[in-house]
């Protein structure tokens, strides 16, 4: 028992002399918050259809996308400036030029429209037949 008391006294003495004197713990508080908003959605309004085009001529078509999300939030849209249309059987192709004026934010109701204009120009020896392609628009909050 004497040895145990002596060991305990020695441990307390080392602890007391080993710790810095006047050392006080400091702290700071940080507030944390989050705001949950609606997810963005984007849907095509209609498919872009050029119809029948004569070889060597030019055609225009218009369509767009409907965007919905949190009212007033700024958005960024990514869309290609051209689309490759491929012939259904021969795999020859035509390039469609794409023009847009993307909105930069959602309106007070959380809506925006992305208008898309397409310009298609065929050559005088363009392969006869149906051509298809796809255009993808991506949207995200800024």
Descriptive report:
With 142 residues, the chain is mostly beta strands. The protein has one helix at residues 2-18, and strands at 41-46, 58-68, 75-79, 82-87, 93-100, 111-121, 131-132, 137-141. The strands form 2 sheets. A 6-stranded antiparallel sheet has the order 1-2-6-5-4-7, with no helix packed on it. Strand 4 (82-87) and strand 5 form a beta hairpin. The longest helix is centred in the first third of the chain and has 17 residues, at 2-18. It is elongated and about 95 Å long.
SSE arrangement:
Blueprint: H1 2-18, E1 41-46, E2 58-68, E3 75-79, E4 82-87, E5 93-100, E6 111-121, E7 131-132, E8 137-141
Antiparallel strand pairs: 1-2, 2-6, 3-8, 4-5, 4-7, 5-6
Brief sketch in words of this structure:
The chain has 142 residues and is mainly β.
Radius of gyration: 34 Å
What structural class do you assign from the helix and strand content? mainly beta
Query: Could you give the count of β-strands?
Result: 8
How would you write the strand order of the largest sheet? 1-2-6-5-4-7
How many H/I helical runs? Answer: 1
SSE string, helices as H and strands as E = HEEEEEEEE
Low-confidence stretches: none
Q: What overall geometry do the principal axes of the alpha carbons give?
A: elongated
The largest sheet, given as strand count, sense and whether it forms a barrel, is: 6 strands, antiparallel
Mean pLDDT: 90
How helical, in percent, are the residues? Answer: 10-25%
N-end to C-end Cα span: 72 Å
How much strand? Answer: 35-45%
């Amino acid at each position: 028992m004497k040895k145990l008391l002596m060991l305990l006294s020695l441990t307390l003495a080392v602890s007391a002399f080993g710790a810095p004197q006047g050392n006080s713990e400091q702290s700071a508080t940080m507030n944390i918050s989050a705001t949950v908003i609606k997810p963005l959605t984007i849907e095509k309004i209609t498919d872009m259809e050029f119809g029948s085009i004569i070889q060597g001529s030019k055609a225009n078509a218009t369509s767009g996308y409907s965007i919905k999300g949190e009212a007033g939030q700024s958005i960024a849209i990514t869309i290609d400036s051209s689309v490759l249309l491929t012939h259904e059987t021969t795999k020859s192709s035509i390039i469609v030029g794409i023009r847009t004026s993307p909105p930069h934010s959602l309106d007070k109701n959380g809506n925006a429209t992305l208008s898309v204009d397409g310009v298609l120009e065929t050559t005088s020896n363009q392969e006869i037949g149906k051509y298809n392609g796809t255009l993808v628009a991506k949207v995200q909050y800024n």
